[in-house]
Amino acid sequence: MAKKKNNLILIIPAFLLMGAAIGIQTKTVIKQTIVGLIVGIIVYFFLIYRNNRINKKS
């Protein structure tokens, strides 16, 4: 089987763009974009931690 590529880093720009889209709708683009960036970074590190725990058990 081919090794699965780890594309977790793509979560950060996805949350950044979602924050920007919400910011455009609510007229607070900068604030929502920063919140999206922070949430993306938090989710990224949480998933890295979770994957490391799952891989250690196997």
UniProtKB/TrEMBL annotation:
Regions that span the bilayer: 33-49
Keywords associated with the record: Membrane, Transmembrane, Transmembrane helix
Keyword Transmembrane helix: yes
Protein name, as recorded: Uncharacterized protein
Organism of this sequence: Polaribacter marinivivus
